[in-house]
């Protein structure tokens, strides 16, 4: 990675927008994810992945990016400026000491700023996860509320259907009892009518026999009166 700028690491130009930088980071980070089976055990991939992350932590932060751009500009102008300053104001030992102090101080400052950026990124990620978890919890609570409401509605419908079935069963039983009583009453009436017809038939038969006996007796009387004896008796 020596000689490459952070822009080179993310494969974007120095004038790239924040959206372009983020898109490049997400693309390269996903492509070189050490957790992928094809990248497992490849230390070079892990190193490049970490470099991509470090580049994004700097270029993804407007403040750190401005400082980094300024550093790149100073690096491009440093040889000319050092020659001019050393020739006019500084001796080589003093210039070397100053450069060393600047490098050490800049290193600490850059490390501090990078740590701040890392913490800010982690906080942003944590906040996003917390928001996502909160939204998920709300969605689950709403779904649970809807499920409970549906369950209660289903229970109400089931209870109403049970009551309707019981009412229909009671009505059917009542109708059956009414029909049974009506059938029994009709059967009694039919038996009474049959008995009445039987008595009438018996009476008619008895009357017929009595009439036949009277007719026969009358015939015998007429025969005795006419012929002096009863022929049919």
Question: Secondary-structure blueprint of this entry?
Answer:
Elements: H1 6-10, H2 18-31, H3 43-59, H4 62-88, H5 92-227
Mind explaining what this structure looks like?
It contains 5 helices and no strands. With 233 residues, the chain is an all-alpha fold. It has a domain at 1-86: Helix Hairpins (Orthogonal Bundle), CATH 1.10.287. The protein starts with 5 loop residues before the first helix and ends in a 6-residue tail after the last helix. The relative contact order is 0.04.
Please name the defining characteristics of this protein.
233 residues; mainly alpha; Helix Hairpins
Radius of gyration: 59 Å
The count of DSSP E runs of length 2 or more, i.e. the number of strands, is: 0
The secondary structure category is mainly alpha
- Helix count, DSSP H or I runs of 4 or more residues: 5
Residue-averaged pLDDT: 83
What is the CATH class of the domain at 1-86? Mainly Alpha
**Uncertain stretches of 5 or more adjacent residues:** 81-90
Q: What is the distance, rounded to the nearest whole angstrom, between the alpha carbons of the first and last residues?
A: 156 Å
CATH architectural group of the domain at 1-86:
Orthogonal Bundle
Determine the fraction of residues in helical runs and give it as a percent range.
over 70%
| CATH topology (level 3) name of the domain at 1-86 | Helix Hairpins
The helix/strand order is: HHHHH
Outline of the structure:
With 233 residues, the protein is an all-alpha fold. The protein has five helices and no strands.
């Amino acid at each position: 990675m020596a000689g490459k700028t952070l822009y080179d690491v993310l494969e974007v130009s120095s004038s790239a927008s924040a959206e372009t930088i983020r898109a490049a980071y997400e693309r390269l980070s996903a492509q070189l994810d050490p957790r992928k089976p094809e990248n497992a055990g490849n230390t070079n991939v892990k190193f490049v992945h970490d470099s991509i992350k470090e580049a994004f932590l700097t270029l993804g932060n407007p403040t750190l990016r401005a400082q980094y751009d300024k550093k790149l500009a100073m690096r491009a102008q440093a040889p000319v400026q050092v020659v001019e300053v050393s020739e006019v104001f500084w001796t080589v030992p003093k210039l070397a000491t100053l450069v060393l102090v600047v490098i050490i101080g800049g290193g600490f400052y850059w490390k501090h700023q990078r740590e701040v950026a890392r913490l800010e990124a982690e906080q942003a990620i944590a906040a996003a996860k917390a928001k996502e978890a909160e939204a998920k919890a709300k969605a689950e609570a709403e779904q649970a509320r809807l499920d409970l409401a549906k369950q209660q509605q289903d229970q109400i419908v089931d209870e109403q259907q049970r009551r309707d079935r019981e009412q229909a069963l009671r009505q059917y039983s009542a109708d059956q009892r009414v029909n049974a009583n009506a059938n029994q009453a009709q059967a009694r009436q039919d038996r009474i009518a049959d008995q009445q017809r039987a008595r009438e038939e018996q009476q008619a038969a008895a009357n017929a026999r009595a009439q036949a006996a009277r007719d026969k007796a009358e015939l015998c009387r007429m025969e005795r009166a006419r012929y002096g004896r009863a022929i049919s008796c």
